[in-house]
């Protein structure tokens, strides 16, 4: 594949993954039917399109590294995330839509650029994961500063106060620069309370080892992408409390939500009438608190796993 064509292909895969994720009517999330006050599906659709050029640039940087033209530390993944956040902001007025997803997908785009394709532009997922580890572990203090700025642009809710290198503390950036703290090191600190950060520093274990295999299995079993995404979402939420919920209303409430997701699955999910009714009640419970119980981090991980599916050759 021509390098420009490869980068564009990677970008399309990631954009499609975001569109798939928002189109599934997952409980408590924005979807094509229901949204939150001020944030609806059109804001996510605009965000997906706005993010695509940044994913293409990330892939181009990965290709440049694979050809020996740049060092992996020169990829500038932090700047890519920051510019992506600014582009998303410019194209929609629904607030923070994708910052967690972009933080997960930007390194995947770089890693895909580094990874050879097989046959019909299909990426070898294990090799992509090896490259992903290299990308995140080679980040710099400049990447960290840029991601702090990206988060300030996106203004995600529920940030709270971090015990160390708090984003709202003006001294944090100075300390990052002065002490030469890389983005990987910053996320290692934050991994204690943020699932997106813990995915980053552990080479995406929930994405690769749990979510991606479950999605593939559910797609084959149900022959229905919407059902596959919802069942996978419920599985991930049942097994891993959502840190977006935990930051806003506490870990106890997040664990309660996980138990409710587990119950829906135990009743059969969308494959039984009791499961369907339980899912409907679960969705209503999550939405009663506006977006306080929105499992946003789980949605970010679903988007990343969908990106792997599409990069691996899945087509609807």
Could you explain the architecture of this structure?
The chain is mainly α and 316 residues long. The protein has a single domain, classed as Triphosphoribosyl-dephospho-CoA protein, CATH 1.10.4200. The protein contains 15 helices and two strands. Strands 1-2 form a two-stranded antiparallel ribbon. Helix 8 (183-190) packs across helix 9. The longest helix is centred in the N-terminal third of the chain and has 26 residues, at 41-66. The protein is globular. The protein starts with a helix and ends in a 5-residue tail after the last helix. The model has no long low-confidence stretch (mean pLDDT 95).
Strand order of the largest sheet: 1-2
- Count of strand segments: 2
**Approximately how much beta-strand content do the residues carry?**
under 5%
Helix content: 55-70%
- List low-pLDDT spans: none
Q: Mean of residue pLDDT?
A: 95
Which architecture name does CATH use?
A: Orthogonal Bundle
User: What is the tally of helical segments?
Assistant: 15
Number of domains: 1
